Amino acid sequence: MAENTTIDKKLVLAQEQFVHYLQNLGRASATILAYGNDIKQLCAFLVKRGKTEANQVDVEDIKTLQAELTTQGYTTMTVARKLNSIKTFFRFLVKEGVIVANPTQSVKQPKYQLNPPRILSKMEYRALRDVCRDDLRIYAIVELFLQTGVRISELANLALDDVQDNLLYVKAYESHPVRDIPLNKACKQAIDQWLEIRPKSHSKSLFITKTGKPFQVRNIRTSIDRYLKLADIKGAKVNDLRHTFIAHQLKAGVPLVLVSKLVGHKRLSTTEKYLELLKDNAKSDNTQLKEL
Length: 292
Fold this sequence. Notes:
51% of the residues lie in helices and 3% in strands. By secondary structure, it is mainly α. It has two domains: 11-95, DNA polymerase, domain 1 (Orthogonal Bundle), CATH 1.10.150.130; 122-277, hpI Integrase, Chain A (Orthogonal Bundle), CATH 1.10.443.10. A three-stranded antiparallel β-sheet has the order 1-2-3, with helices on one face. Strand 2 (167-170) and strand 3 (179-182) form a beta hairpin. The N and C termini lie far apart (60 Å). Keywords: DNA integration, DNA recombination, DNA-binding. This is Tyrosine recombinase XerC.
């Protein structure tokens, strides 16, 4: 097979071209970042073994790296994710004609059990509200998570004009289409209260810091984690507020297709998995969203 000269044999350069390939596919920025870091880690490992070109890599290199990651304390799930990144990278190299044989083809993924999402009970999400009630910015953020099920990245990217009357407008990004989510009275009131004390700023971001800069994902995560701890809610993280919205809407009988559309799931099967967590799933359809 003739080798494709557009993709470099040098692993470090091929890694950069792989990232561009993922960007052209429209993969999520978080996915691209994770893949890029995983392949950088692979390249660093291979350099220590005296291998700098793709055609020098064999199955023993991959198996040794897999064992080393486990020894270093990475969880089975993380090792599996990193191995998936590496497999995707070498499939890319085969596809582009850089290498003929894929050294990862016979390497099996480690088996692991995925923990189910943490669903907050009514008592828990009320307790979370209580502890952050005086922090109007975080209170509005909590309400948005619980009442709309938006992703943390989507919430961080919300602009002032994305709140229109009783609708939340989530702009299209990467491979996710635009969507509108109804805002109930409690959520709209929380946003309005935040806007009344929001610092004056040239920033168009809905949520900003005291100095007028956009409130970043890391700021949101840190703040929510702190309030979850204050509310004595064990084993929960910020993404679980989104999970809580999904589960409680399904439990209230809101149609699966509607919930899936509102939260931006690409596949209906992703939403269906939440039904397994519900012991008394409502059978009747209810198009009215439940207010948490």
